[in-house]
């Protein structure tokens, strides 16, 4: 994994934009377009695509698969790409989700890597460290689509918390579990001859799927808020504000 280093002069609003499941009949396209419009009109906005941008159902997918989609294959890809093109200059990188992984598993073709290429963004694979330098302030972020079968709010966040068992960052961001959550944890460490406290952020990055008549409703999963977290990163001091 290569470190992605991003340099900015002023405060930024980092949007962790994922689990759109574009092409699924339950995709809230109106809300997706609203977020894209917000990004396009916000000069401070920067974006990481958190995976499962596409639904990518196949004949052997779980549930009703292709029969639960409004568009398929190349058409699904082209429509989603055209929606994202207006914000391409603000997109840092693209993570692969388990839904895009379906296509790779069946064909060897990586649609997330192709999307990153078409958007002139970096391909982040399964996970990526990003160092964000804003003025003289440094932030470290680790992002991943994630892998978890959790269905309850407190078990969903646990998957994100577990990332800190083998990685170190100021911000951990995980998608996949279709929930918007923020958890902060104070961590003590020794710096030179003093004990200092760092604040670490654990963020679940939301989704854009309506609940009624969906796979989630069929499985009696708990409904959760749609949308994406927006992280305001300050250029004046090390300060993170998360809006969900």
Description:
The structure is a single chain. With 244 residues, the chain is of the alpha/beta class. It has one domain (4-243): Metallo-dependent phosphatases (Purple Acid Phosphatase, chain A, domain 2). Helix content is 23%, strand content 32%. The protein has 6 helices and 12 strands. A 6-stranded mixed sheet has the order 1-6-7-8-10-9, with helices on one face. The longest helix is centred in the N-terminal third of the chain and has 13 residues, at 29-41. The radius of gyration is 18 Å and the shape is globular.
Topology (elements, then pairings):
Layout: E1 4-8, E2 12-17, H1 29-41, E3 45-49, H2 73-84, E4 91-95, H3 98-107, H4 111-118, E5 122-125, E6 127-134, E7 137-144, H5 153-161, E8 171-174, E9 180-191, E10 194-205, H6 215-218, E11 230-233, E12 240-243
Parallel strand pairs: 1-6, 2-3, 3-4, 4-5, 7-8, 8-10
Antiparallel strand pairs: 2-11, 6-7, 9-10, 11-12
List keywords for this structure.
alpha/beta, 6-stranded mixed β-sheet, 244 residues, single chain, 32% strand, 23% helix, Purple Acid Phosphatase, chain A, domain 2, 12 strands
Shape: globular
CATH C-level label: Alpha Beta
Major pleated sheet? 6 strands, mixed
- Total domain count: 1
Radius of gyration: 18 Å
Q: In the CATH classification, which architecture applies?
A: 4-Layer Sandwich
User: Would you identify the CATH H-level superfamily?
Assistant: Metallo-dependent phosphatases
| Strand percent estimate | 25-35%
What is the helix tally?
Answer: 6
Indicate the percent of residues in helices.
10-25%
The termini sit apart by 29 Å
SS class: alpha/beta
Mean pLDDT equals 94
Sketch the topology as an H/E string, one letter per element.
EEHEHEHHEEEHEEEHEE
Residue runs with pLDDT of under 50 for 5 or more positions: none
């Amino acid at each position: 994994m290569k470190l992605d280093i991003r340099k900015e002069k002023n405060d930024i609003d980092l949007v962790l934009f994922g689990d759109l499941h574009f092409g699924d009949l339950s995709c809230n396209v109106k809300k997706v377009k609203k977020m894209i419009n917000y990004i396009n009109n916000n000069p401070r906005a920067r974006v990481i695509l958190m995976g499962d941008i596409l639904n990518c159902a196949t004949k052997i997918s779980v549930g009703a698969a292709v029969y639960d989609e409004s568009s398929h294959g190349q058409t699904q890809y082209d429509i989603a790409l055209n929606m994202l093109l207006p914000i391409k200059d603000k997109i840092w990188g693209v993570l692969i989700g388990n839904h895009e992984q379906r296509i790779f598993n069946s064909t060897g073709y990586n649609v997330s890597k192709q999307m990153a290429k078409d958007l002139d963004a970096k391909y982040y694979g399964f996970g990526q460290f990003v160092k964000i330098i804003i003025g003289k302030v440094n932030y470290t972020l680790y992002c991943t689509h994630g892998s978890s079968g959790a269905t309850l709010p407190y078990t969903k966040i646990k998957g994100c918390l577990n990332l800190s068992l083998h990685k170190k960052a100021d911000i951990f961001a995980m998608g996949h579990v279709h929930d918007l959550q923020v958890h902060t944890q104070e961590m003590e460490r020794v710096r030179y001859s003093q004990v200092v406290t760092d604040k670490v952020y654990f963020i679940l990055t939301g989704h854009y799927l309506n609940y009624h008549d969906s796979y989630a409703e069929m499985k009696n999963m708990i409904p959760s808020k749609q949308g994406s977290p927006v992280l305001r990163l300050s250029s004046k001091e090390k300060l993170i504000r998360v809006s969900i």
